[in-house]
Amino acid sequence: MVAMASASGSALRFTDPPSSRAIRRDVGAFCLAPRTVTFGFVDKSITNLGQLRLLSSLKTRASNATAVENANAADSDKVPTPVVIIDQDSDPDATVVEVTFGDRLGALLDTMNALKNLGLNVVKANVYLDSSGKHNKFAITKADSGRKVEDPELLEAIRLTVINNMLEFHPESSSQLAMGAAFGVLPPTELVDVDIATQVSIKDDGPDRSLLYIETADRPGLLVELVKIISDISVAVESGEFDTEGLLAKVKFHVSYRNKALIKPLQQVLANSLRYFLRRPSTDESSF
């Protein structure tokens, strides 16, 4: 889950720390100076999303194409679904990243090094196996403060960095990832903008917050864009989860308005705003 709050429950802080400049320089994903928007009850900064672009290092790797094309064609049906989970709820002191790709992943040392280049420390790592494959799990904190990540730009940079490394070291994963359509050697067989509909639902989760669930086609920058839409109607994102499951993005956010659960009219406004933004390719009108 992508928790957008500190352990004390404060809303996500949209600031422009020194690390943001490093992200824009080294990652290339966030290009413009931040502008101030109202997010819940606090003024926060968020990057103009009009020119948000994918990591500059995400590109088609022609050198891998031959190896993939020479692979046994029958193996294409056996490619597992890549899963990248950004979880801020399970650990109050760290951001937890979980990566699964069947049993094909190694120790992910290159991924951990790439995360360190974003100004992050991997404070704990473990691996476990279940029926879905091998799960690599990292607990991450910011190197300069030792705290969990609260900046949505940095959270999205973490997600894209993990996917970037998966595309580089496991090019066959591109057939199972939305970003493989533009940056992989084997594009997905499903058309992301045609075959995947959007679902949005909101329900109360106690008296002080509501649970927002979104399922939609994945794309670069989606996490930051969703947080901006929610903030534009003065709803605070307190915590959440952002899962990349193959072509899908599955999002669960705990949201509130002035420290209370969203009333039904505000739930409808939020759902309609998200449906309008995520209307590619179609949105299930009964999903609210």
TrEMBL record:
GO MF annotation terms: amino acid binding
Domain of life of the native organism: Eukaryota
Keyword field contains Repeat: yes
Statement: the UniProt record of this protein carries the keyword Repeat: yes
Residue ranges annotated for the ACT domain, each copy included: 96-176
InterPro entries: ACR1-12, ACT_dom
Keywords of this entry: Repeat
Official protein name in the record: ACT domain-containing protein ACR
